[in-house]
UniProtKB/TrEMBL annotation:
Record's protein name: Small acid-soluble spore protein Tlp
Residue ranges, compositional bias (Acidic residues): 60-69
InterPro entries on file: SASP_thioredoxin-like
Organism: Paenibacillus dokdonensis
Gene: tlp
Region feature Disordered, mapped onto this chain: 1-69
Superkingdom of source: Bacteria
Bias-annotated ranges (Polar residues): 16-29
Length: 69
């Protein structure tokens, strides 16, 4: 028998995702600051692109969160 669809904690899960994604952005920025002399331009560009994608993901999470509450 299939489990019932329980969405009672969706808002909390979305908030956790937002927090985790923001933390990943901060860690990447810290890495870029601390290792600027050691990383290649390509790696820096890739990490900056990844953070831009994370920012977009946060926007989507926030819209989804608003739908849940």
């Amino acid at each position: 028998m299939a489990k019932p669809d329980d969405r009672s904690d969706n808002a909390e899960k979305i908030q956790d995702s937002i927090s985790n994604t923001r933390e990943n952005i901060q860690e990447t920025n810290h890495y870029l600051d601390e290792h600027a002399d050691e990383i290649s331009g390509q790696e820096q560009q890739n990490l900056e692109h990844k953070n831009a994608k994370r920012e977009k993901a946060i926007e989507g999470f926030e819209e989804e969160y608003q739908d849940e509450i």
